[in-house]
Amino acid sequence: MTKTLDEAFERIWAIAESLHLPELVRSTTYGTPSLKVKTSFLGRLKDVETFAIYCPLEEKPLLMESVPNIYFETDHYKGWPYILMHLDAVSDAELRHRIKLAWHARAPAKVKKALEAG
Q: Which one of 22, 45, 74, 113 is most buried, by most CB atoms within 10 A?
């Protein structure tokens, strides 16, 4: 049985929700399920097997070189601060880490302060 996009996104959303990050919302971007902090885009399900998530440009080559079974990019993502992940290869812990890093990078200062306050 083939997963739908929404079924594939359930794992991502469950992990994201478990982080209890302020203003983290489930949304839709380019017709696929996505994560945002307020209105800032964090990542989206590209297809049932691939998640595109915010990643600073300087980190992308290191991730793709050190863990090529998880991280990769297509021509469409070259030069953009997003990296692709093979969902069947990434652990929950690594996915949690990436979501948290993306949130911290993209969250507005006021939202970050809300997290620090408590």
A: 45
C-alpha torsion angle, residues 63, 40, 91, 15 (rounded to 10) = 160
Distance of CA 96 to the CA centre of its chain: 9
CB 44 within 8 A of CB 51: yes
Domain residues of the chain, as ranges?
5-113
Top CATH class of 5-113 equals alpha beta
> How far is residue 17's CA from residue 62's CA, in Å, rounded to a whole number?
28
Q: Per-residue DSSP letters for 44-101?
A: EEEETTEEEEE--TTTHHHHHHH-TTTEE--GGGTTSSEEEEETTTS-HHHHHHHHHH
- pTM, full prediction: 0.93
The rounded average pLDDT for each run of 10 residues, N- to C-terminus, in the chain (118 residues) is 85 96 94 95 96 97 97 96 97 97 94 78
